[in-house]
Amino acid sequence: MASSSLGTIPSSALKESYSIWAMPRGKLGDQLRGEIAHLAQRHGGPSFPPHVTVLGDIERPREEAQALMKELAAEVKKYRINFVDVTRGTFFYQCVFLLVAKDEGTMAAAAAARSVYGMTTPPYMPHLSLLYADLDDAEKAKVVEYVTARLYGESSGYDTLLVETGYEVGSLALWYTPTGDETTKSWCLVEEYPLS
Length: 196
Description:
The chain has 196 residues and is an alpha+beta fold.
């Protein structure tokens, strides 16, 4: 059983699922990890590693997901993720996030992942989530204003000011992200794959 302050989830309720992430490294990764933890504590959501999901909800056996990742990594070239703005979404996993530019490399990686895994998905909206939570629109708007001031505002401290406008993606990570675990407690890195 996975448990947290957000509740207990019987392992039988979790459906095996994987996600492909492009993760920021170094100082930016540490800063975003800290911001995510701060917002999770402030708003009662889970903490999770900073990432841009390239493809999610991959419901295949682990060995097959890993074999396809090797194929994908050989096909995708290194690329850059560029942040656009802090904004809000309409559901739990897209509550408040950094919108990512639909640049050629970002969109090509997503298209390649869908092709290699044989998946059809809604139109891709690249983003880096900062908060997973169920908040009403008014509360989300307040969080967006708060986060924007922390990351981009003139009055933000040097510890929260987001200096970098994005990051280079040199590898993709396969994560175990079972459907049904909003606590993220069961999520774990399976393997990382360098890009060509």
